Amino acid sequence: MSCTVMFPHDGDILNVYDGQIREERLVINVSISAPDGRQLLVNGAEARREGEYYYGEAALDGYANTITVTDRETGYTDSRVVYWLKNAVNKYRIAVDDNIWFLKDIVDNRHQYRSIFDNPYLGMFKDIHDKYGTKVQFNLYYQTEGFNLTQMPDTYKEEWKANAHWLRLTFHALQNDPPRPYEHAEPEEVLRDCKLVTGEIVRFAGEEVLEPATTIHYGAATREGCRALRQFGFRGLAGYFRFADGRPIVSYYLNDEQTAHLNGRDFWKDHSEDLIFIKIDAVLDGLKKNDIIRELDRVKANPGEAGFIELLIHEQYYYPHYTAYQPDYWEKLETAARWATENGYSPAFLSECIGE
Predict the structure, then answer these.
(1) Which helix (H) or strand (E) holds 20?
(2) What is the pLDDT of residues 236-274, one digit of tens each?
(3) What three-state secondary structure class fits 323?
(4) Domain 4-84 coded CATH 3.40.50.300
(5) pTM for the whole thing?
């Protein structure tokens, strides 16, 4: 029977919560399942048996780090690459999916609105930013009934750019319906829609507001579709990475094992596609306001999830005309931002965290 490395997984993205800092290096415990009596090495140093597993220390001293486990008796080796994200600890952001209606309102009121923040929805997020410093990413549709992004004027472009330090825009989908539009779509369709949205964002708001991470509508896409997004320039995709009826949901193309692993992590990198996946920690419109703090406390208590807090909400729940309107939308946002601030989390975009 060969040995099996239990932690870390190949592609794991680690931080101080996974180990401890010694002499400016992150030292983690590598855990290995193997029969008694084996002589195992972790990066050349002997592993020790403690209870069910063998353990050996590995010191990470840069962004990418190779960990090699060797069985002296059988000659078996297992090498994997893991990452140390130094800038992703005690950080958070808010992402907003399904956005299009606030842009239509800006167009409808372009002769009255002197500022994009005259739109009440966008103004609400600015209030959150002004109070807590929160950074917010809006993932956009290209079109909705009677409106598409080509109708957005570029007259507010300088204002968008001036607020790019806390406000970002990026691709989400062509439109709201049908559900899971890219679950079986050809990569050409994904890329076409991405280019439509991105091109219009650059035209009316500037390249400064773009962000190289997003959530695809319903978090469902083929490997080939995700590869097309990576080739376009996206480095990260956020999702739920959980199961419903025994199947992964909002997990892109990841298999059961990968989904289950990522469910308890902040990030994980699929080396085969050079893509980083980001676990969404709390969907605010899916929680009662009084449950938000309890859920975020639970996330913080898990070392694998505590480094970066990814918060998500959807645009439509803000509006009284929507069938599932949530009148406490503002309070949910404010509760989450306040919790993050009081618990020592600083606002950050993913682009500021997931690189070297």
Answers:
(1) strand 19-22
(2) 999 999 999 999 999 999 999 999 999 999 999 999 999
(3) coil
(4) no
(5) 0.97
